[in-house]
Design goal:
Its main location: Golgi. This protein has four helices and ten strands, in the order E-E-E-E-E-E-E-E-E-E-H-H-H-H. With 187 residues, it is an alpha+beta fold. A hairpin with a 2-residue loop joins strand 4 and strand 5.
Length: 187
């Protein structure tokens, strides 16, 4: 992601709403602590740093996933990055059960180019993106094909997690490369 945002790593930001205290630690996790004296007050993890959300070739948010279990799934949180005068957790909501939404204000994202994806990529990945742009311009690929290439670029850059299918595919390829023949396998 954007190198200038790594200044936030190792820091945590709190927000208290009614009886809950939320704590956001960029590139680490999001936690929630119930501020009551009940014997079973909830205190837990709403998500662990997972990947970026990218829209229109811009970083729009951070996904914190694999939090504490909640019914049949894990808690997860999307952190929206917005321009603000200081670094602070400004708003927390739960739009759907066990899925949280946080708004984090920071001056680090105020510049119009501060969240562009392209400059954060290696030269080789920028070249791949340029080639995809040319293919789209020449109408040799569809919008869908272009988006697929971009997704692959973002995964290769480590900005998005590869889907489980791809991980299984990679494992299968590794396994199948171990033996070229049945004889070698038997040995």
């Amino acid at each position: 992601g954007p190198a200038h945002l790594f200044r936030l790593a190792g820091k945590c930001f709190s927000f208290v709403e009614s009886t809950y205290k939320y704590e956001f630690c960029p590139f680490h996790n999001v936690t929630q602590h119930e501020q009551t004296f009940r014997w079973n007050a909830y205190s837990g993890i709403l998500g662990i740093w997972h990947e970026w959300e990218i829209d229109n070739n811009t970083f729009v948010g951070m996904w914190m996933r694999e939090g504490d279990s909640c019914e049949t799934k894990s808690r997860q949180t999307k952190v929206h990055l917005v321009c603000g005068r200081s670094n602070k957790l400004a708003y927390v909501s739960e739009p759907s059960t066990c899925v949280y939404s946080l708004t984090f204000e920071t001056p680090l994202v105020c510049h119009p180019h501060s969240l562009l994806v392209y400059p954060t990529l290696t030269e080789a990945l920028q070249k791949k993106w340029d080639e995809a742009e040319q293919l789209l311009y020449d109408q040799l690929i569809t919008d869908q094909g272009y988006k697929k290439i971009l997704k692959e670029i973002f995964e290769e850059a480590g900005l998005l997690k590869a889907t489980e299918e791809k991980e299984v595919e990679k494992q299968n390829k590794k396994i199948s490369l171990k033996f070229e023949t049945v004889e070698k396998c038997n040995k």
